[in-house]
TrEMBL record, chains A, B:
One GO molecular-function entry: glutamate-5-semialdehyde dehydrogenase activity
UniProt pathway annotation: Amino-acid biosynthesis; L-proline biosynthesis; L-glutamate 5-semialdehyde from L-glutamate: step 2/2
Keyword vocabulary terms for this entry: Amino-acid biosynthesis, Cytoplasm, NADP, Oxidoreductase, Proline biosynthesis
Protein name: Gamma-glutamyl phosphate reductase
Function: Catalyzes the NADPH-dependent reduction of L-glutamate 5-phosphate into L-glutamate 5-semialdehyde and phosphate. The product spontaneously undergoes cyclization to form 1-pyrroline-5-carboxylate.
Matching CDD domains: ALDH_F18-19_ProA-GPR
Family from the record: Belongs to the gamma-glutamyl phosphate reductase family.
């Protein structure tokens, strides 16, 4: 056997590669399972999380103590913290995933061909999914539950700051699914806290079917650029609100403030405001005051600053630099520019947007139609907040992330996006 | 502008990157075009190919002369050759693509959310598609037509052996679509005949949306391993025919011979035969004789060779080495093994298959069900030849390739597989 197959057992495997082989074997067992077997395991996970809450919370306390020693900010410590109440909420989320329809086996296409062959394209699990994520330990359980429901084995690579929490959580999950008769290796924490384990995951082509990085832009860029395993790029959002020449100004102010300030730390929050020059004098004074009230600093181009000065707004308006047009602030800041036309707004968005979500506020059907046709982002909102780009809001019931790439999945990813398909060709002796 | 955007014009662009920028701009123009504009351009291409056949054929003669000088084999020269008749056939294929439905704008999902928002997921072009392919110049036109129909700009990187033919063809195509009012840069030959241009294409992340290598296993592996642009892996086919314990022997022989010998040079031809031990004594003598008649050399394991010796078949049966289990012969050769059970056949396939197409021949409903559940390939055929895995056979009307990966597209890829999607969220002032 001179040319080893990716599925052959080798000597000298690294711990990460060993984990991937075990995951592959578990994935083969999961793929044909009926929904009931997967749901039973999910309910066992939820029960186990409730029964073993104190074990999880005390492991979490170790992470928090380390984080405090390291001088971590309170906002990050808050995201890291698991209370008994939060663990209960996580368990409830797992029950919610169990209640969702099983994507596996869904017939996506089907027909009888002219020669009498029955052709069906059905959803099948991807196989082994690797998730690389940052501080929040709740992602450990969410991702594991979504992968299990969709018949995939999962390799979880959380941040080292949550290692004790993740270790405890994965122990609970593995015990629960093992008790429910499923292979425990369907859920594994990637061994090792060092960056080497991320590198090994990115090189595990043939063993890992897809990597999904969830977290900051730096993490995502590293994985996208370095991985030989196929990647689904998630979550960077430089979202725009464009206020058209013909618009309902009250609606435009409401949508702007909601898009920017309802929760600025998330990827579907707006980071840029574009205003048609014909409406700027009427809209900007109201918008700037509303932004000021919401505590938002405006990074304005020359024309925005001129309108601000003329209107005597109480808003803080600083001069925008080109960097502002491409910055995902994730804070109470917004870039703002006046544009000559809808097409100029589209050109600005094409140049600077991360392709996540762009909204237009307009009373013109023609403008709405042109904007939705020309803007090439995962989601285009017409007279609605950018904040709706979300698996929960879209009615998917759960979300593994928001893909900002064009291949495989684009926009909020639910359970079907964690599947591939295969064709079943059924004949009675058909030959060509 | 310290951090340049991928869409900014730069100084010092390489010719390939310049081509990619122009393709991106053309793609933005193509995306909103209605079907009629694209079909008119396709029909203009077909007409132009017929009018300018002699220009294409004489350019092709230069390639053929060079190939003969270089001592190229007649089979490759045949694939390279364009006759007036072949050019007419290519033009007819383009008219066929024009007649296919436009995938762009198709509503994939749609609903009114509980809050009254209208949500629609619609198909949109991918943007810029790069195709890297080998000798056949007809791929130049096929790929351009399919990309144009699906609203994508295309960067064509053919083999240097077909450079004159491809240059002439692309000149005809660009003139035709330019005359039809579409941007000529929607169809471009990647400049340069050296391997550097392939390297540059593979590094053009952000400019090229997807690369599709079409050709030999070596080309595909290089692109898959080295590209930072997302890749759709196509076409390697180590396809298996498994003859179950309960089977119709006549049907099994017919399917085996058709799968192996009807056209051995294609990716959906069978390369391996697996026979259940309980049927081997009845099936193998018949099968080996039929393979011998079809001119197929059998690379058999010990048990196959024992049956061959016992039956006194006229077939050529050589001893299989482990390499045979994973070889895509593309010739009149087949690897053959006797397996203990259906599950052993599945295990063999999991270990060695390229995941293209596997067929089972069985009279048992339970065996058919288990095989289709457990085999994880793009296509599983029950009582049908492996040769049906083909966009034309599946009724897709055309095919850009057969994806053997799990992300985005799996199996024969038609026009919908050359699209992505975007969500349109329409409200009347909706905020969260």
């Amino acid at each position: 056997m001179t040319t080893p197959s990716p599925l052959s057992p080798y000597d000298n495997l690294t711990p990460v590669t060993q984990a991937a082989y075990r995951a592959r074997s578990a994935a083969a067992d999961l793929a044909p399972l009926p929904r009931s077997a997967k749901d039973d395991a999910l309910l066992a996970i939820a029960d186990a999380l409730e029964v073993r809450t104190s074990e999880v919370v005390s492991a979490n306390a170790e992470d928090i103590a380390r984080a405090r020693e390291a001088g971590t900010s309170e906002s990050i410590i808050d995201r890291l913290t698991l209370t008994p109440e939060r663990v209960r909420a996580i368990a409830a989320d797992v029950r919610h995933v169990a209640a969702l329809p099983d994507p596996v086996g869904e017939v996506v296409r089907g027909s009888t061909l002219p020669n009498g062959i029955d052709l069906r394209q059905i959803r099948v699990p991807l196989g082994v999914v690797g998730i690389i994520y940052e501080a929040r330990p709740n992602v450990t359980v969410d991702a594991a539950a979504l992968c299990l429901k969709s018949g995939n084995a999962v390799l979880l690579r959380g941040s080292s700051s949550a290692y004790s929490s993740n270790t405890a959580l994965v122990r609970v999950l593995r015990d629960a699914i093992g008790g429910a008769g499923l292979p425990a290796d369907a859920i594994q924490l990637v061994p090792g806290e060092s960056r080497d384990s991320v590198q090994e995951l990115m090189r595990a082509r043939g063993l890992v079917d897809v990597l999904i990085p969830r977290g900051g832009a730096g993490l995502i860029r590293t994985v996208v650029e370095q991985s030989t395993v196929p990647v689904i790029e998630t979550g960077t959002g430089n979202c725009h609100v464009y206020v058209d020449a013909e618009t309902d100004i009250d609606m435009a102010v409401d949508i702007l403030i909601n898009s920017k300030a309802q929760r600025p730390s998330v990827c579907n929050a707006a980071e840029s405001l574009l205003v048609h020059q014909d409406i700027a004098a009427a809209f900007l004074p109201r918008a700037l005051d509303a932004l000021a009230e919401a505590g938002v600093t405006v990074h304005g181009d020359e024309r925005v600053r001129a309108h601000a000065a003329e209107a005597g707004t109480k808003a803080t308006v600083v001069a925008a630099t080109p960097e502002d047009w491409e910055t995902e602030y994730l804070s109470y800041d917004i870039a703002a520019a006046v544009v000559d036309s809808l097409d100029a707004a589209v050109a600005h968005i094409r140049l600077w947007s991360s392709g996540h979500t762009e909204a237009i506020v307009t009373t013109s059907q023609a403008a709405a139609r042109r904007f939705t046709q020309l803007v090439d982002s995962t989601t285009v909102a017409v007279n609605a907040s950018t904040r709706f780009t979300d698996g929960g809001q879209f009615g998917f019931g759960a979300e593994i992330g928001i893909s900002t790439q064009k291949l495989h999945a684009r926009g909020p990813m639910g359970l079907p996006e964690l599947t591939s398909t295969k064709y079943i060709v059924t004949g009675d002796g058909h030959i060509r």
